[in-house]
Amino acid sequence: MNTNSSNSAGDNKIRPKGPNLLFTRKSPLIDIAQLLILGGVTAWVIYKGAQAMQYNWQWYRVDQFFYRIVDGELIWGALMKGLMVTFQITAVSMVLSVLIGLITALLRMSNSFSGKLIANVYLEAIRNTPLLVQLFLFYFIVAPIVGIDRFWTGVLCLSFFEGSFAAEIIRAGIQSVHRGQNEAAKALGFSRFNSYRDVILPQAVPIILPPMTGLVINLIKHSAIVSVIAVADLTTEGLNIISDTFMAFEIWFTVAGIYLVVTVSLSLFVSWLESRAMRGR
Amino acid sequence: MTELSSTTDSNADRKELLKFNGVGKWYGNFCALWDINLTVHKGERVVVCGPSGSGKSTMIRCVNLLESYEAGEILIDGSPIKNDPKSMQVIRRRVGMVFQNFNLFPHVTVLQNLMLGPIRNLKVSKKEAEETAMHYLEKVRIAEQAKKYPSQLSGGQQQRVAIARSLCMHPEAMLFDEPTSALDPEMISGVLDIMVELAEGGMTMMVVTHEMGFAKQVADTMVFMDHGEIVEVAPPAEFFTKPKSDRTELFLSQILQH
Known about the structure:
The complex is a heterodimer of chains A (281) and B (258). Chain A has 281 residues and is mainly alpha-helical. Chain A has one domain (78-276): Orthogonal Bundle (MetI-like fold). Chain A contains nine helices and two strands. A two-stranded antiparallel sheet of chain A has the order 1-2. In chain A, a hairpin with a 2-residue loop joins strand 1 and strand 2 (73-76). In chain A, helix 3 crosses helix 5, helix 4 (131-146) crosses helix 5 and helix 7 runs antiparallel to helix 9. The longest helix of chain A is centred in the first third of the chain and has 32 residues, at 78-109. Chain A starts with 27 loop residues before the first helix and ends with a helix. The relative contact order of chain A is 0.11. The model of chain B is unreliable at 1-9 (pLDDT under 50). The interface between A and B is medium-sized, with 22 and 32 residues.
């Protein structure tokens, strides 16, 4: 009768540690060595190639584009200012694309014919045209009509683009919640809105979260496209610095490195969040 | 024979709570329910049986509009149940339902499963909801599991929680949709005991089940369905000993063989 399931962390027995693998065939040292060799070879190839075209490396000039200290005062460099703009674009677009995605997903699942039609036309139009063309449409047609500046043009364009992917992620998450859950909520007299709020979405969100992280990472990367309409984001700042200094190699490596640091730390953060959330179950 | 007349008598002076008037339902061209006429009095226990696919579940799911129906009407307290969102919510608060697969909310604790409905839909305070919840958890004898998540409970315990969850809404009637079909055999009696207690407490119940022992014990009225129609309505004494219809007799011989 009383099935006491004992899977809590408390009664984890003390067990001996695993064997030391440092100097065996499975040693992590071997992995590290492989990585170093691979990295070394890549660096050497780039270096040799640059030497062949007589490229003049000037890494020492790069740090000023991060920050400078003038008279004991910290002044952010162009790259950091650009990164901040990239963050702003990403943050606003993320909120907007989740909203657009949620509305589209609900419209697609509704019984309303026109609702479904609007959602489907939107999804097909966005997914079957290039992002760059959408940006031009927004910049040359929508922006003058609505009267918005470059920043918001970029943000809106990205939001509608990513929103179409968010819509499908959210729809899949909601539909993965068992049908019986909705019926149980209905049977207890929940309104549609409350059953989504209390029953469906709390179960869908853990399913939605991992692919949503991928979406945010895509958003950070895709935000580089606003450089085409001269919004001063990280990529634009990189372009400007290069046209001033001709340090194409250093700056592009640095810009790519900054994007990489941001996206990788974001995905590490989210997987940490997920593992923390799983522990509660 | 005396028992039979007594139930008929008591039904006569009981109030009619639910009344099916010529209810019909179609899935495309397939007729799932046809000309359902049935009256459930206040405090009456109706057990619905029949072969699978006969429309038993569909019929009781029509009461709280988990299924729509195209013909006829269902009355509660003499007034027809309408299918606009507001009236649907109201009828669902008045009539509780227990599902075959429990359908507990897995993301909240047992206690919160019981509190969510009353807080949202009866607008009671958190404290009151918790008191009611603990009261019914004690009734179904799992108060000590209140802080656990549904997945940590056995199937039988989960179904008892589901019954308690419905009761927290203070329903006037309860619908049971094969409440023991998904349970391991040793878990069934615990759930049936609770249902018997509920019946003895005077709850109006419509139960779809294959548990004929339970039916004999608590039913005031047996309903036999086949191919979307009600074939026979009779008090259990008559139903089990001398069924009027051949189809009922065949069905009973098949399920009572073992």
